[in-house]
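Hi X.,

You mentioned you wanted examples for the new student's onboarding notes, showing what a folding record looks like when two proteins sit in one file. Here is a clean example. The first protein comes first, with its sequence line followed by its C-alpha cells.
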Amino acid sequence: MQIPDVQLETERLLLRVPQGQDFEAWAAFMADVDRTRYIGGAQPRSLAWRGLMTMVGSWAVLGFGMFSVIEKSSGRWIGRLGPWQPEGWPGTEIGWSIVSDAGGRGYATEGATATIDWAFDALGWSEVIHTIDPANAASKGVAAKLGSRYLRMDRLPAPHDANEVEVWGQSREEWSASKEQRQ
C-alpha cells in the first residue's frame, strides 16, 4: 500500500493528504464542542489521533480520503474536507468541516468544488452525496451552493446511527451541467 501524493489547489486553499504535523490543529478542532456537534461531537486527543490515523489509512487503502485544508495566506490547517466512504456509508460522500475562526468565508464551498471535480474525474464516481444533520443549516447552505439537492433521509452506520441524517447530492451529469452555468 502506498499513500498517493495528491494535492489540489484553489484560489485560497491547498488541499493535501493529512500528515502527522496536522495533529495539533486536528485535535484542537475535534475538541471544539460547537464545530463538532454535527459530526459526532467533541473528542479527547486519543480519539482525535485515531480519527486522523483513520483518514490517513483511508488514503493508503482506498486511494482517497478527506484532505487537510491549508489556508494559503497563513499556511495553517483550517479543516478537513473531501471524499469519504466508510463501510456501510449511504454513498460516495464529499464532506467538509472548517475551524470556527475560518467559518463563513466560503472555504467549504471552494474546497468542496475542487474535490467534487477530483472525485468525478480521478475516482470515477457517478454521484456525490453529503450527509447532513437536519439541524445543520450552514451545511445545507453549502450543499445548495454546490448545486446539490435534498435526496432522502437515511442513517449512518453504527456508532452514528442514533439519528437520521439528510442526504443531499447530485449526479456527475448534474454537476457538469451546473459547472457550465457557473462558468
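Then the second protein repeats the pattern, sequence line and then C-alpha cells:
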Amino acid sequence: MTDPKDNVPNEDEPQVEGDATNAQEPEDLIEAEGPDVEVPTDAPAAGGPDASATDAESDLSPEDQALLDDAARGIEEDKLSQADRDLVADMRADMLRAQAELVNFRKRVERDREANRDAVIAEVVRALLPALDDLSRAEAHGDLAEGPMQVIAQKIRGGFGKFKLEQIGEKGEPFDPNVHEAIVQLPTPGATGQTVADVVEPGYKLGERVIRAAKVAVAVPA
C-alpha cells in the first residue's frame, strides 16, 4: 500500500518550470509569447485605393473616362436635395420650352417670308396682265403668226411660267365662282347646269392664288 506521505512534495527538491504537474493554479501557466513586431503606420494598406489609382486612370480609354464622368455626375445629382432637383427640372423644362418657341418662331418667319414673296410677285404680275391680254388678242387675230412679236410673246410667257403663272377660263368647263366671274347668263335649252359658254377675258392664277378671275358668259338651263 502506498503511503500518503509519498505524495507530499519535498520542499528541498528543486521545482522544474513548465511542468504542469507542479502548477498549483491556472495563473501559474504562462504561455510563450513571440517577439513584438513593429508595423509602420504610414505605409498604405495592401490593395488600398492609393496603390495604383494613377496607373488605373492612365489606362482608361476616352470612352471609359466619359462613362466614369457621367457616373460621377449622376452621383452628384443623387446627392442633391429634393428642392434642388425640382429647380433643375424646372430649368430643363424652361430650356426645352425656349427651344420649341425658337423653332416655331423660325417657322413663322420662313412662312411669312414666303407669303410676302408670293404677294410681291402677284402684284408685279397683276400689273403686267394688260400686256398679256394684248398679246392674247393679237394672237387671236393672227398678228403673232409671223414676225418678231411671236418670239417676244414666247419669251414673256416663258418668263411668267417660271413663277407658275397659269391661265384659267376655258369654254365648256363647269362654272366655278372661285375662278370665274360671270358677266352674263345665257339661257340655253337642254343645259343641265351652269357651264362656261364663252370667255370674255381670261383669268390667271399664280400657284394656288387666283390673281384675276376669268370673265365669262355662263350658259344656264332655259
